[in-house]
Design a protein that fits this description.
Blueprint lengths: L2 H45 L2 E4 L2 E5 L3 H6 L3 H32 L6 H13 L2 H11 L6 H8 L14 H8 L13 H27 L3 H9 L4 H12 L1 H16 L3 H7 L13 H11 L4 H26 L7
Helix pairs in contact: 1-14, 3-8, 3-11, 4-8, 5-12, 8-11, 8-12, 11-14, 13-14
Length: about 325
């Protein structure tokens, strides 16, 4: 055996050992993902083709349950409520979190304390958050209505109000809007406000990491060129945090489509809040799978449709936004 062949053999065996070591390291995480992510998705896809009553398969459904969705008014109402929630959450969360992150990125006293305060809601129990905000939105004792009364405005029902927010605002000036222009219910708006308060701290931390990764040389060059603060932000900061913004937009959209706990804790009822105006898709899946006779087949069907919607929106966002991302 020549010296070259011996070296090649040793190189190959070393590579095999490195691959084996890598597989050993990733095996626990891969097993968790397989058991708790991949297999449930595959199982849900399979169950969606069967009729299920009380948790037991009673017959093959094929694509009939997917066709039933087209005429299911509850499904379309839940999809509309989810869309309202996403539209109300994503842009507002993006703007507020970036605004606060820019403020916290300045050289001010007790900066660490401020950052901790803004992140505390993220690690607070959702049950505690729901209890506190249900009290804040209480129609008689809540802080919001106390504030409205202090400025001589009529108190509102908040979590018990099924009317659309645009219809309420228009009625205050004597305008009657058609039902399709009423907008999300006031109850859903209240949940959106609670969700923003609870989740904005996470995006603030992500934006802070992006802002602090920008080299200071860019800002020095902008100051030398005579750029003011707005020009510096628009021409330097905004383009250079585009990878962070891209991540925040996609993740906030995905998480918003999965909202359930706050809806269940704050307005959960057999009909999904006041007249079903806070029933989102995940709540509808829960209702069908665990409350309405255990129809896991139809619930899995709705879950797969939600998966396709989120996947499609993610791909669209990548196509529309990714080419605008600037890496440095």
């Amino acid at each position: 055996m020549t010296e070259r062949s011996v070296l090649r053999k040793n190189k190959i065996s070393k590579r095999h050992r490195e691959l084996l070591r890598a597989f050993v390291y990733i095996a626990p995480a891969a097993a968790i993902i397989l058991v708790f992510r991949v297999l449930p998705i595959v199982a849900a896809f399979g169950v969606s083709f069967y009729y299920v009553m009380m948790g037991k398969i009673v017959g093959f459904a094929g694509f009939s349950q997917y066709l039933m969705l087209l005429s299911d008014s509850e499904f379309w109402n839940a999809l509309l409520n989810t869309t309202y929630f996403v539209i109300g959450t994503v842009p507002v969360s993006l703007f507020l979190s970036l605004f606060v992150a820019v403020l916290l990125n300045q050289k001010i006293r007790a900066l660490g304390l401020y950052r901790t305060i803004y992140f505390l809601p993220v690690v607070t129990s959702l049950v505690a958050v729901a209890i506190v905000w249900k009290w804040i939105f209480h129609p008689r004792l809540g802080l919001f209505n106390s504030f409205l009364e202090a400025i001589h405005l009529n108190p509102m029902m908040w979590l018990e109000e099924p009317r659309g927010i645009f219809a309420i605002l228009a009625s205050n000036v004597g305008i009657e809007l058609p039902s399709w222009m009423a907008g999300p219910s006031l109850a859903l708006v209240a949940i959106t406000i609670t969700n923003l308060w609870r989740g904005i701290g996470y995006n603030i931390v992500i934006f802070l990491a992006g802002l602090q990764s920008i080299p200071n040389e860019y800002y020095e060059a902008a100051r030398i060129d005579g750029a003011n603060r707005f020009q510096t932000f628009w021409k330097v900061t905004w383009p250079l945090i585009s990878p962070t913004t891209f991540y925040v937009v996609i993740m906030t959209t995905i998480v918003s489509f999965q909202v359930f706990t706050l809806v269940y804790l704050m307005t959960g009822s057999p009909v999904g809040g006041p007249l079903g105006t806070t029933k989102v898709l995940v709540y509808y899946i829960f209702e069908k799978g665990f409350e309405s006779g255990g129809d896991m087949g139809y619930a899995s069907c709705v879950a797969l449709v939600l998966f396709v919607i989120v996947l499609g929106l993610t791909l669209i966002q990548r196509r529309l936004i990714e080419h605008r991302v600037h890496y440095y």
